[in-house]
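>> Question from a student workshop board

For tomorrow's exercise we were told to take the sequence and the ligand below, predict the bound structure, and bring the output to class. My setup keeps failing. Could a helper post the expected result so I can at least see what it should look like? The ligand is zinc ion.
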Amino acid sequence: MPPQNTGVAAPEDLRDRKLDSSKSDAKKDVKGDSEEWNYWDHLYPVNIFWFILLHVGAAYGLKLAITDAKFVTTLYAILVYKFSLFGITAGVHRLWSHRAYKARFPLRVFLAMCNSLSYQNSVYEWARDHRVHHKYTETNADPVNSKRGFFFSHVGWLLCKKHPDVQRIGGKVDMSDILADPVVFYQRKYYIPSVISLCFVMPTVVPWYFWGETLWNAYFVAVVLRYCLALNATWLVNSAAHMFGDRPYDKNIAPAENRIVSALTLGEGFHNFHHTFPWEYSTSEWGWKINLTTIALDFFEKVGLIYDVKRVTPEMIKARMARTGRHGHEVVEEHEYMWIDKK
Ligand SMILES: [Zn+2]
Ligand SMILES: [Zn+2]
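>> Workshop helper replied:
Here is what the output should look like for this input. Compare the format with yours to find the bug.
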């Protein structure tokens, strides 16, 4: 039986949120954004080559999807896209990076497999970079620092060496809780074989075996095109959702509410909310609205696969909006009226 939980983060939980509460202190560790560091001097030509090749291959995959591949192959590619993103959103993001809920062993295994399917670095590395991103948002130590522009925060950060502050801080992040999870340990140990089999081989073979698609079409549609789109969708959280949208919860930070990004990422675009309440399991206060991940997590909670789910209360949100929100007190009342999912 799952441990009992009120569904609301206890005050001591909030105080203990190392990822958030120590943030202002943490930023003192890094130098200002003006420090001289020219990324052009530290490019990774091999990464640049592979990402160009990936996008050319994805364009070709799109052509095949429209002109040659079976329709069911495209539907299958969309399904694989969603499962791969689920390994990011529910898995490495909400579960392992933020500990917004706890999950039973079988679900953790499933999430780790979806994570390998997404091929965005192992759970360990992804969570480490993400914790640094939250703690040092928009500083030199932020791996995806959006102050360096849309392109850098979208993909540019993968094309060059990490800023020295990112490397220095990344090595200091507390990852003991993550390493204590055997699922994370073995996913990291067998990361390459799991990526080859789940991200590349499985999506190629399934359409060929079950409905007679050519291996060529299956590879370019369900692997190359799907992988490229899922990567870009995830990157939009770091780029677009750090630039475009409203900031109702905290007007002092760059992350913004972006519904388009939410639609593309199964619910990860409510980014002003998420950076304000990073421990909240839903990354939004709007429940199932544009948030497939939350729909799935609510189901998993009902059947006992997840527990200790952390939730904000309307009172906490209103208090925060009145204090730091873009619209201040005026819109808080109206916001209360919009509160539809928590009653
Ligand atoms: Zn962010
Ligand atoms: Zn996050």
